[in-house]
Amino acid sequence: MRVLIVEDDREVARNIAKMLRECGHVADAAHDGEDGLALAREGAFDVLIVDRMMPRRDGLSMISALREEGDKTPVLILSALGEVDDRVEGLKAGGDDYLVKPYAPSELIARVDALARRRNPDAVKTRLEVGDLEMDLLARTVKRGGEAVLLQPREFRLLEFLMRNAGQVVTRTMLLEKVWDYHFDPQTNVIDVHISRLRAKIDKPFSTSMLHTVRGAGYRLQP
Amino acid sequence: MTQPAGHIWRLPPFLRTTAFRLTLLSAGLFALSSFVILALVYAATVGASMNRADTAIAAEIAQIEARYAAGGAAGANRYIVQRSVGGGEFLYLFLDADQRRLSGNISGLPAAPADAQGRLRFVYDRAPADGADGGAARNARGQIAALASGHRVFVGMDVEEEARFVSNTLNAVLFASALALGLGIISGAVVSRRFSRRLDAINAAARAIKAGRLETRAPRTHTGDDLDELSSNFNAMLDRVEHLMQRMRTAGDSIAHDLRLPLTRLRGRLEGALIDSDDAEAREAALQRAISDVDELLRTFNAVMSLARLQAGERRRAFETLDITALLGDVAELYEPVCEETGLEFACDCPDGLTLLGDRELIAQAVANILDNAVKYTPGGGAVVLRGRRTGAGALEISVTDTGPGIPMEYRARVLERFVRLEKSRSLPGVGLGLSLVQAIAEVHGASLTLDDGPGAVDGHGPGLRIALTFPPGED
Lengths: 223, 476
Description:
Chain A is of the alpha/beta class.
């Protein structure tokens, strides 16, 4: 996967590029909005990581310009501005996800992965399958190895998100944002508890476990 | 109104003020309008009296013409003599075809030229016998009429009184206009001087603040007038700015204070990992701990930032009508498993249809923070209840009651302060910002936050805590 990092702080850009390469991706960097726009226009990237405040052209205007040209490459906005209003502004300008600085590197990688997968949207799918785990989005039923698993509505959405991002690290913050639509930090381990309840339903009765905890980062669902 | 700038800058400052210009303008308009009004009055009174004189003269000439028609020159002469001697208000002169004076009470025709109708205005000397005004030149109007066979008759009328009234009126009009203008200028100067002095004081305060003397305030007269209100608003704004700056400074200090310790710890841990670099397992463990330290730091940092922003009042824009019943249900759903996990009984009790004007994210965060605390401090086997209700007074109250240790009365105010964690809780995770954040969220919504005894309290002590957010009625 090719990722373009548009970030005026060269060290931050270098670190992100290094992490992406370690995960097997190809990363390029631009250090201001104009260069970023020029590179992005070549259209060879799967995901763009764009800082908001940059010299020559700010991130939001760069994204708007791309979107006006019909470019649909997923964009992750990086910003020190983290209030809900700022996020809304970023998403309105055409960003697909928003990460507030300072952030944990694992969070960034997880979000980039999730965005990259959005290029081939499986939103229209009515069935999700990961290993022997099946989810029917219309009937709202879940089966593992042919056996029905009964889930609460929220557990269903939690599993759906994990299945859509199967094989990828999903962080607690991402889950809180995408499944519960909250953008704050609960002090207690609420997400862990929900995951462990889900785990009890989809993993415990079976010989192999699919829902793994990634230390220091989050969770990964894989066969 | 536009004058070369060179003239204006030499005026004293108070004459350059808006107040002075406005006063001058209104004085000018007043003078002009009084002039117009008095001119109208003049036309109506003086003009009318002149018309009356002309009408009377014309009537008298008609009389004479009638006598002339009936009795010839002798008849007219008799009438004129009678009238002249009678001492009426008219002046008469009867001339024959050769322009010789036949009779009348004046010696000759006035020198003034007559108009097409034979009317004329003239000045004559009244006979000294007349008394008081003897010998004085008096204004009069008259008309000459030609009779048949070349006789001519002149009838005049003294209009000195009217003329005097005219000139008096005219003088009064001009004097009044000039006086209005003069008084306007003086009062404008006085008013604007007062005004400009007070404005100067406010400007001086603004300049002082610009120069960095932030404690400066605009002077107040406490008269409640508009300038006083300006000063008062100006000062209130400065108080607010100062307060915000104070808070930002405190936030900075708090961040520095609260981050220094974990950063030092983190540094030590990383250094230790470097020293133990032979032991891969120990190194990995140290790095893992370092990562969770950093996560904790990030969390503190974010909490401090959102608290600072909240307190700076940046977040009123996102207000919308919220379904509180649904919101509490959502948060309850998030926390119910946590309570079960830690062996707490949990209940959410909220009637349908509770609404509130507010910010969903913030209220959810406030409730989540309160629940976080309840879960953290209530020992297993206890109970936590989240409740939403309308009070009798129509206020909306969201409360969380737990059966934990509670907070002693004397500490209740303190726990709302930033970073305050009661000694007993030091061993539990968290940064001590939870309740201050709830407090700030309450403030943004105009709500009040109260801490109370829980259900198990005996004489105001002991187990349990009830935290309530009360939103005033009319907010939804």
